[in-house]
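User: For a benchmark we're assembling, each entry needs the component sequences followed by a predicted structure for the full assembly. Here are entry 17's components. Please fill in the structure.
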Amino acid sequence: MVVPSNNWEPTIVGFLCNWCAYQGADLAGTSRMTYAPNVRIVRVMCTGRIDPTFVLKAFQSGADGVIVAGCHPGDCHYSEGNYKTIRRVTLLRKLLSQMGIDPERFRLEWVSAGEGAKWAQIADEMSAAIKAKGPLAWWETLKEA
Amino acid sequence: MSKPKLALYWAASCGGCEIAVVRLYAKILDVAEIFDIVLWPCIMDFKYKDVEALPDKSIDLCLFNGAIRNSEQEYMAHLLRAKSKALVAFGTCAYTGGIPGLANVANREIIFRRVYDETPSTSNAEGVRPQLSYQVPEGELTLPKFYDTVRTLAQVVPVEYFIPGCPPVKEQVEAVIQAVVEGKLPAPGSVVGASDKTVCDNCTRIREEKRIRSFYRPWEIIPDSSRCLLEQGIICAGPATRGGCGAPCLSVNMPCRGCYGPPPNVTDQGGKLLSALASIIDSQDPAEIERVVDAIPDVLGTCYLFGLPASLLGRVRLEGNALPAREAVETAKAL
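Assistant: Structure for entry 17:
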């Protein structure tokens, strides 16, 4: 386990869908809401585009947490992309647990285009939760004892 | 002109790849005719010092099977790399880690504890464990160091070609040897002896719409031998696996388990298989999805049966030596 320095800040990779969650995050910004800057947002057209490989790659490359956010169920711009995401995330969460990655480091949230405040709250909550957990630092896992 | 030199070596493997070469039957005599075999510990008596005495780059073709799990194998990987013109990761273990790579759910301490203390057939009251070095009256005895993590050959040394398969099928081995003889190998870094499509492309089963309400293990149902197994709820790694094997497992009503590794342009075979499996679940209800997914007892073992070391995450993270893999799975289930 890596001991974090005093000014350590978690790195969280966020995959946000273009039509709801990204617009929600945009609204949080244009409304000048103040929230934790730890989520690095990657905009995708739909959460259904998120290959589980993206999440694995984020953790491998040094992310301390990953968040997937999209339209509320029933609101998907492409009808059912977010339902596909529920299935993938459910299965991926089981894999990550077996890999030794705490399920709290990987979240799925629904944020509509009008929910700027909700996005700000989620980002705050997740940053605080991961800060409490400490760095994941996956490269340490592969070092030979 | 002297004959081209051939070396075959085995590291962490079962010996099946050696059988794959021997299965060339009469053609094995051609191999012996064409090549001057300089190392093949499974078949003939060679010493490592004979290989050490060879000039660098003097072996034309080295077929290296098995993953790297201890210091002797790592030494041989470096030695054969230096002595070979073309180093080939032969078979799945050398290519993606293979079955020995599943040891990456544990580490040295957990494996030793299991093997030297816990197995029911073990009687080891003195708690004997392998030592790297031991003094006997005749001198010093040494053993290679057993590593925590199994690695693929390419994670240890640069590799020219990869031949997947557990073991590689006979026709593909023949084709590769033929290509070597004719000097028709593709650019270094290529996967040879396999196709650029998935196993589904080799499979002759009828495919309709993939929508399933539950997963079954092969012994739980008697599958229709003419229809796609995935559509019948049996987990088949075909869509996430490189073809070229001819789908022999599918022809005997067994699902593909993924031994030929990821198809071209896929970074992580397990991630792709997971994606494919999740996509075909016919439900929009989170509770129902949870129930369907729970029928897969071991997601990691299903997705990375042959490729844990080559996967993006590479191995399981263990906090100390506390959690053996089986308990980790139980804990994950309880969450």
